């Protein structure tokens, strides 16, 4: 066999080996690619399932919560069982519940959520109510805390007796009058009566309770003049618009008087006895 033939045979064998290696390498690459594609497909499927679960939860969870809340607010579990009323001295518990609508059996959600509307309605219905606060303090228990417009006494409005209140309004007489102060000479002077009441409402309770009667007694010099008849026997002359400020001096002045008399707070502050004819 010639050398040329031998070289051709070696070349053919080498070529066959390289071809076989190439085929094997291609098969390995293809197998690896298939494995990679398969792993990617598994990962994508997993991520798709997770995303689908998240989408499902994002729809189902809020809907479930809304459904549960809707079921709760119409169920007996959301009804008021106990009402604790505080801050009322002159208004009965029954009157507070009637004005606010807070009573056992009512649904709590509407009462708490619409508190401002409840407060405004209560103040419109009952002028003795100055403010209302509603708070959940226990399982199915509400606390209603009110502030009152105090009763200053009785006045006659359009021929009917009414409670005069510290905010200058009045309310129907519903029971015993806690303050028996009388108001004289205010007929036809509703504005003056309202201002007088608001001024009296600013006084400390101790001073307010020492007044037995209030008389509208204007003069040409002082068209706002009021006469206050005190429980201790004294008479106070005071300008209506400054009543709240000036009456704070009364206890100190009265304590220094030897005899009953007049305390004049119209301009400045001084006193004189009833028997002093020079005044």
UniProtKB/TrEMBL annotation:
It comes from the Bacteria. It is found in: Cell membrane. GO terms for biological process: FtsZ-dependent cytokinesis. It is a single-pass type II membrane protein. GO terms for cellular component: cell division site; plasma membrane. Residues 161-265 form the Cell division protein FtsQ/DivIB C-terminal domain. Keywords: Cell cycle, Cell division, Cell membrane, Membrane, Transmembrane, Transmembrane helix. Residues 79-148 form the POTRA domain. The chain crosses the membrane at residues 56-74. Coiled coil: none annotated. Signal peptide: none annotated. Pfam families: FtsQ_DivIB_C (PF03799), POTRA_1 (PF08478). Its main location: membrane. Belongs to the FtsQ/DivIB family. DivIB subfamily. Cell division protein that may be involved in stabilizing or promoting the assembly of the division complex. This is Cell division protein DivIB. It comes from Candidatus Limosilactobacillus merdipullorum.
């Amino acid at each position: 066999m010639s050398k040329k033939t031998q070289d051709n045979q070696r070349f053919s064998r080498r070529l066959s080996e390289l071809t076989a290696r190439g085929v094997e390498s291609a098969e390995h690459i293809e197998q690896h690619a298939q494995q990679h594609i398969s792993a990617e497909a598994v990962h994508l499927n997993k991520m798709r399932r997770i995303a689908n679960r998240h989408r499902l939860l994002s729809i189902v969870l809020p809907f479930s919560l809304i459904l549960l809340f809707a079921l709760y607010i119409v169920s007996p579990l959301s009804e008021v069982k106990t009402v604790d009323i505080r801050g009322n001295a002159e208004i009965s518990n029954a009157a507070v519940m009637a004005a606010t609508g807070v009573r056992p059996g009512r649904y709590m959600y509407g009462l708490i959520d619409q508190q401002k509307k409840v407060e405004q309605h209560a103040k419109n219905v009952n002028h003795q109510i100055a403010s209302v606060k509603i708070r959940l303090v226990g399982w199915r228990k509400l606390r209603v805390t009110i502030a009152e417009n105090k009763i200053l006494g009785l006045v006659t409005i359009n021929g009917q007796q009414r409670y005069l209140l510290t905010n200058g309004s009045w309310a129907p007489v519903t029971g015993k009058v806690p303050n028996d102060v009388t108001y004289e000479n205010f007929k036809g002077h509703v504005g003056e009566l309202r201002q007088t009441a608001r001024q009296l409402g600013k006084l400390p309770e101790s001073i307010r309770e020492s007044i037995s009667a209030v008389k509208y007694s204007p003069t040409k010099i002082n068209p706002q003049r009021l006469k206050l008849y005190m429980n201790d026997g004294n008479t106070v002359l005071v300008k209506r618009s400054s009543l709240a400020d000036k009456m704070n001096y009364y206890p100190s002045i009265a304590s220094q008087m030897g005899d009953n008399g007049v305390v004049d707070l119209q301009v400045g502050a001084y006193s004189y006895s009833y028997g002093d004819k020079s005044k």
